[in-house]
Design goal:
Blueprint (H helix, E strand, L loop, with lengths): L1 E6 L2 E6 L4 E6 L2 E6 L5 E5 L2 H23 L5 E14 L35 E14 L3 E13 L14 E15 L4 E6 L5 E6 L6 E4 L5 E4 L6 E5 L5 E6 L4 E16 L2
Antiparallel strand pairs: 1-2, 3-4, 4-5, 6-7, 6-16, 7-8, 8-9, 9-10, 9-11, 10-13, 11-12, 12-15, 14-16, 15-16
């Protein structure tokens, strides 16, 4: 004869045929061997079941996250952001034009330890940026955008070179980049050296072009659905900004960006 009882998440199974009896009580299963021959007891508590379920849910969540934040980041992302640059062009005592066109002045740049300008003639500018960054899905991509900048006082003043007044300006720019995705929700982008080109549209440099030797890495995070990215520099680095009129300006900048997916190609 076999009898099954159910009560409060517990199931009771009692089988009596003179040999064996199996009973369940409050989540416990007990196997009794008839005739006093064998006795085996197996206990499965509610807490054990909860732990097993928790482990399974964590594993499933991790797998889903890994699947969503795939190493294959692909598509076009619109972005906005801002930046500020400290420029250390160096200076000369005699008045007049740039004495070394296409080459940075000997006293330009920054102390490699303190990152303070070597020469006292310095200036800074800030700019906003809007553009599109395209991830090709194979670790390469392109950026195109527009900046609007303000060069704030104080600026280098006479005598000597350089000397100029505060101003505003705008420019279009573009460059190529490579990128990696770490599989844990992060990404890193590196500008391809020699690919940066800007066309200055308004301001004192209207009609000129310029290049930057290497923008420092952009490092950021990826949202779970890959619709939003963040990015910024996380360390300092000296860039060389070269203009078509012969000016060469070492600078240190900070940049931050927020990216929104426009389409997935």
């Amino acid at each position: 004869m076999t009898t099954i009882f159910g009560n409060n998440r517990s199931h009771f199974l009692i089988r009596t045929d003179g040999a064996d009896a199996i009973q369940g009580n409050d989540g416990n299963d007990i196997l009794l061997g008839g005739g006093g021959g064998n006795l085996a007891v197996r206990t499965v508590t509610t807490a054990s079941i909860a732990v097993a379920l928790s482990v399974s849910l964590v594993a499933m969540t991790w797998a889903q996250t890994a699947a969503i934040v795939s190493p294959r980041l692909k598509g076009a992302y619109g972005f906005t952001g801002n930046a500020v640059c400290l420029v250390a062009p160096g200076s000369t005592v005699p008045p007049g034009p740039n004495p070394t066109p296409g080459v940075a002045l000997p006293n330009s740049g920054f102390d490699p330890v303190t990152l303070r300008p070597i020469d006292g003639k310095v200036f800074s500018y800030s700019f906003t940026v809007e553009g599109i960054r395209v991830f090709n899905g194979d670790g390469t991509g392109t950026v195109k955008g527009t900046t609007v900048a303000v060069t704030v006082p104080p600026t280098p003043q006479p005598p000597g070179f350089p000397n100029f007044a505060p101003s505003a300006s705008s420019a279009d720019f573009g460059y190529s980049f490579t990128y990696t995705v770490d599989g844990a929700g992060g990404w890193t982008s590196m500008m391809v050296p020699g690919s940066y080109l800007a066309n200055h549209l308004t301001g004192p440099r209207a009609g000129q072009t310029s290049t930057v030797d290497a923008i420092p890495p952009i490092i950021g995070m990826i949202s779970l659905n890959r619709r939003t990215l963040t990015g910024a520099h996380i360390t300092t680095a000296v860039e060389t900004h070269s203009f078509s009129n012969g000016d060469v300006d070492p600078q240190i900048c900070h940049r931050s960006r927020v990216f929104t997916r426009l389409r997935e190609d």
